[in-house]
Every structure is written in structure tokens, then in C-alpha cells.
Amino acid sequence: MGTEGPLVGVLALQGAFEEHQKCLEAVGCRTVQVRTQKDLDNLDGIVLPGGESTAMGLIGTNTTVGESKKTMWQCLQDFSKEKPTWGTCAGMILLAEKCVGTSAVIQDGQALIGGVDITVCRNYFGSQVSSFEMNTPPPPNASDQSSPFPGIFIRAPAILWAGPGVDVLGTVVATPCSQAAVTLHELHKKIEKGENVVKLGVVDALDRDEAGIHYKVVVDTATEEEKKD
User: What is the mean pLDDT of the chain?
Assistant: First the structure.
């Protein structure tokens, strides 16, 4: 690597790739935006930024690159097996082995790169307007381990389960939004039946069937008196 900082790629299909570049460069890394297979050459690692995981998946799985005719997603899967790969928010979703709360209006819901033995729930905390801040455990390398660390949750996913090979650095206790709660209830029922769930779509927003796309009400918030009326 020499005296220069490591060369870190930032996936630039969509999302906050420029913001991630600025943060990496501030700590001495060299950065390059990654959009094609060729952009992966000579990288020391890659960061998958926050953004729209569904949009990234659609672009990555429908873009064929190079003579290999591999999709960008397949190239990223190969890269992540060999070199350090980091995922922030949407990027974390992409690196998960399992995902619940995937889009009901996109075929197959959510394209995953995989590689990290975790189960994530998309939009666990609700929509953009439900974004919030709360204290979280400090990072392991923080100089002050006695003070809480500010956590920012912007339409955030949650890790529901981590495999034995995953080091959990901290946990928070939080209540899922109503949509995520219903999705998790459906997941629990499938697990009780012995099903091995890799992807599970939302169950109380948009639904798709032979008649087309429509709104599906799962959580009925009407009171008993309102129902009588």
C-alpha cells in the first residue's frame, strides 16, 4: 500500500456515495466511485453506502458488465468474498444473507449481495418522517467507553438476528413501526411452520396479484364502535 492511504471504492449506483467519499478521505483514504466491473480493479476495499436498497438492487442486477457478461451484482459478490466490504444502512441490507420487509411491487422484492450472516428488516423504524436520534453503545475503539454514542436512525433497517460468526458491537431496544411489526408477525408464523425464509415482502402496504397492484389492509385500526357504525 506504500505511504499512501488505502484505495477504497464507494458504490455509486445510487445513494450517499459522495458523502461517504468525503468521510473516507477525511481519515486518509483514497477513494473512487464504483459503477462498473473495471472500477473494482486495484481496490483495497469497498463501501456500499446508504440510499435506496431496492433501486441499487434493480440497477445492479440489470446491468451486465465486461466480456464476462456478469451483472454488477455478481461482480460485487465475487469482490466481497476476497476483500474488505462495508455496508451502511441500505448497504447493510444488501450484504445481509436474509431480508424481511422487501418491496411487494418489485419482482423478487430485494436483490441481495449477501456474505454477512444476518437477518435484516427494511424500514424497521418507519418512514422518513419517523427518523430519530438516540444514544447507542460507543464503538469499541472510542476513547471514552463510559459515554453513550449518538445514533441517527433515518428510515432505518434493523438487524433482527446475527449468526455465530458475527461480532455484535452494540444493541438497542426499540419498537418497530406497525408495518414492520405485522411483517415480523408473519415471519414468526412461517418460522413456527419450519419454513426457511430468505426474503419476506411487506404485508400491509402495496400488494401484487393477478388483478394488479392494490393497497392491502392487514392492520385494522378501527374501534369496535366504529365497526358497528
Answer: 77
Comparing 201 with 222, the larger pLDDT belongs to 201
Give pLDDT, residue 60. 87
Instruction: Phi first, then psi: give them for residue 175, nearest 5 degrees.
Output: -90, 130
Residue with cell 445492479: 60
Distance (Å, whole) CA 64 – CA 54? 18
d(CA 117, CA 101): 17
Is the model more confident about 139 or about 56? 56
CB distance 69 to 27 below 8 Å: no
Are the beta carbons of 59 and 13 closer than 8 angstroms?
A: yes
Which three cell numbers mark 192? 413456527
3-state SS class at 227: helix
Euclidean distance between CA atoms 118 and 166, whole angstroms: 8
Question: CB within 8 A of 85, min separation 6: which ones?
Answer: 45, 46, 47, 48, 79, 95, 115
CB hemisphere CA count around 108 (13 angstroms): 9
Q: Is the dihedral of CA 135, 136, 141, 144 positive or negative?
A: positive
Q: Name the residue with cell 364502535.
A: 225
Q: Are 179 and 114 in contact (CB under 8 A)?
A: no
Residue indicated by cell numbers 400488494: 207
| Residues belonging to the chain | 229
Q: What is the helix (H) or strand (E) element at residue 11, kind and residue range?
A: strand 7-11
